[in-house]
């Protein structure tokens, strides 16, 4: 740079850009805005609101940057920070309260199992939280190829307890949406005389960012490096506890792998005319559809199949009759947490009183 040039007038070579490191974090200046102060450059990771050095950024836009964390992936200008947030090699500070251990993103699971094992939550494991004591929780949950953090915060206002929660996906953050769509996530909350089951929409699952998603930030007493010291949980389930004196709330995080067969099969055992489960005698229409004996015997019935319009036949479906007496099927509320699995006759009785 000549004496007449200002910092923004200097032209940068490719090698100069790739070798310029931030004066604060020491990483390559591959995140905008890249600013300069007294000859020292700072990246957008550390100074996200500074005035950019336009000449530097013009040169940087033409380059491909190797991951500064060492994973081997290369990114173009403008995509580096997005990659670093979910890079397996990125060092993060543990999200649990008062824990300042530095680990890699993919090493968080082992750290939780070693240091915070009581918060490692397997699906279907019931948890209790004391509404008169600690009002915050953080659980580490694994299902399939996924690892998530489940944040909980209770707030009581008069007779209403607001059950706030967030679900943050730790690993992997680069995945096919169809992989996550194979699972149904449910939150089941129980207090005396009330059970609430809520679907956790996959679209509401956030990518985990340790600088925003931590318990200390939830308490707003966080001094961890680059953390925001604020964290608002975006999901809420209000619970009316008027007249309830029990101080504990029980909740269960339920994960189901979707099974199209188990979900739809019970419906195939229902009569298409009256929609009741087919028991005892089962008959055919002339196109092969099955219907129950009660509908066959109803004199007022328009004797036409509701599926195809075909005529009812006085011919028994003996194979279906034998099958229904032997096969076990799940409750249709399986995805809401019901674990019933039994014969159709028992299922008919169970579904009248199923709490789900």
UniProtKB/TrEMBL annotation:
<dbReference type="GO" id="GO:0005737">
    <property type="term" value="C:cytoplasm"/>
</dbReference>
<keyword id="KW-0862">Zinc</keyword>
<dbReference type="InterPro" id="IPR004162">
    <property type="entry name" value="SINA-like_animal"/>
</dbReference>
<dbReference type="GO" id="GO:0031624">
    <property type="term" value="F:ubiquitin conjugating enzyme binding"/>
</dbReference>
<keyword id="KW-0863">Zinc-finger</keyword>
<dbReference type="GO" id="GO:0008270">
    <property type="term" value="F:zinc ion binding"/>
</dbReference>
<dbReference type="GO" id="GO:0061630">
    <property type="term" value="F:ubiquitin protein ligase activity"/>
</dbReference>
<protein>
    <recommendedName>
        <fullName>E3 ubiquitin-protein ligase Sina-like RING finger domain-containing protein</fullName>
    </recommendedName>
</protein>
<dbReference type="InterPro" id="IPR049548">
    <property type="entry name" value="Sina-like_RING"/>
</dbReference>
<dbReference type="GO" id="GO:0043161">
    <property type="term" value="P:proteasome-mediated ubiquitin-dependent protein catabolic process"/>
</dbReference>
<feature type="domain" description="E3 ubiquitin-protein ligase Sina-like RING finger">
    <location>
        <begin position="271"/>
        <end position="308"/>
    </location>
</feature>
<dbReference type="InterPro" id="IPR013083">
    <property type="entry name" value="Znf_RING/FYVE/PHD"/>
</dbReference>
<dbReference type="Pfam" id="PF21362">
    <property type="entry name" value="Sina_RING"/>
</dbReference>
<keyword id="KW-0479">Metal-binding</keyword>
């Amino acid at each position: 740079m000549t004496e007449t040039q200002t910092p923004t007038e200097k032209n940068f070579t490719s090698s100069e850009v790739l070798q310029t490191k931030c004066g604060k974090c020491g990483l390559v200046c591959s995140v905008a805005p890249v600013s300069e102060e007294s000859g020292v450059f700072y990246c957008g990771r550390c100074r996200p609101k500074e005035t950019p050095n336009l000449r530097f950024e013009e040169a940087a836009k033409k380059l491909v940057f190797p991951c500064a964390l060492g994973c081997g992936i290369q990114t173009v200008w403008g995509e580096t920070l997005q990659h670093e947030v979910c890079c397996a090699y990125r060092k993060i500070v543990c999200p649990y309260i008062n824990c300042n251990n530095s680990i890699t993103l993919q090493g968080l699971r082992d750290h939780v199992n070693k240091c915070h094992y009581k918060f490692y939550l397997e699906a279907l494991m019931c948890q209790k939280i004391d509404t008169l004591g600690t009002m915050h929780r953080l659980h580490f949950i694994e299902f399939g190829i996924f690892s998530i953090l489940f944040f909980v915060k209770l707030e009581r206002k008069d007779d209403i307890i607001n059950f706030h929660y967030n679900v943050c996906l730790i690993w992997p953050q680069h995945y096919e949406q169809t992989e996550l769509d194979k699972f149904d996530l449910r939150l089941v909350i129980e207090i005396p005389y009330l059970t609430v089951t809520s679907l956790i929409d996959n679209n509401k699952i956030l990518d985990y960012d340790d600088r925003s998603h931590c318990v200390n930030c939830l308490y707003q007493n966080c001094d961890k490096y680059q953390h925001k010291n604020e964290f608002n949980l975006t999901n809420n389930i209000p619970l009316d506890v008027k007249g309830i004196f029990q101080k504990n709330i029980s909740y269960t995080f339920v994960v189901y792998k979707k099974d199209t067969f188990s979900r739809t099969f019970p419906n195939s055992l229902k009569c298409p005319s009256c929609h009741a489960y087919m028991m005892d005698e089962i008959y055919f229409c002339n196109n092969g559809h099955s219907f129950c004996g009660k509908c066959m015997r109803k004199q007022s019935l328009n004797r036409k199949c509701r599926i195809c319009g075909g005529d009812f036949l006085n011919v028994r479906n003996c194979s279906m009759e034998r099958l229904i007496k032997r096969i076990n099927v799940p409750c249709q509320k399986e995805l809401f947490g019901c674990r019933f699995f039994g014969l159709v006759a028992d299922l008919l009785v169970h579904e009248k009183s199923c709490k789900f």
